[in-house]
Amino acid sequence: MQKDAHKNAEAVVLGNIGAVYGIKGWVRINAFTDEQEGIFDYRPWLIGRNGQWREIEVSQWRWHNKDLVAKLADIEDRDAAQQLTGLDIAVPATELPELPEDEFYWRDLVGLDVVNSENYNMGKVSHLLSTVANDVLVVKANSNDAFGKRERLIPFIQSQYIVSVDEEAGRITVDWPADF
Asked: Which residues does 40 contact at the CB level (< 8 Å), separation at least 6?
């Protein structure tokens, strides 16, 4: 069952729909969740792009070699599945579990001010990157940055570089030199 829904709801992207798999409407799933199959723990799925979402059910899913493939409700053939390739897979933000005090969703860090231990305002978090070693804050520097920086990449390692995250104050304090 598909229905138009959540056009203005806050949604969190958990993956996207990849290439068509076979001729019966199956698609490959690219999951951004910690454990790839964890994407199937969330319901309802919202698919779309640019904040325009529609709700869709997953009828079946399975592993195929190292890939996840899924059959979505009411998608019966390759042509219908082809129309979905590249669409984001999201869930309503309200469906995400509460995190422990020292863990954060990336979406909650974007837009926070980043200040170092010397109280130098380094800019705002524009987005985060996932690397093999650790996540990285991408900080867009203020236009009047004394060191002429446009952006800074700061490893998000709480025991080493991240001193504190205060979402209420809108601030992340880091142990990172302003000129780096």
From this structure: 58, 61, 70
Sign of torsion, CA 32 33 36 38?
A: negative
Q: Is the dihedral of CA 45, 46, 49, 50 positive or negative?
A: negative
Of the candidates 122, 117, 127, which has an alpha carbon nearest to the alpha carbon of residue 160? 117
- CA distances 131 to 72, 84, 156, Å, are 31, 28, 11
pLDDT per residue of the chain (180 residues) written in tens, 0 to 9: 233 344 445 899 999 999 999 999 999 999 988 899 999 999 999 999 988 999 999 999 999 999 999 999 999 999 999 999 999 999 998 888 888 988 998 889 999 999 999 999 999 999 999 888 999 999 999 999 999 999 999 999 998 999 999 999 999 999 999 998
Under 8 Å between Cβ of 59 and 73: yes
* Dihedral over Cα of 118, 123, 128, 130: its sign: negative
Q: Which residues contact 116 (CB under 8 A, 6 or more apart)?
A: 122, 173, 174, 175, 176, 177, 178
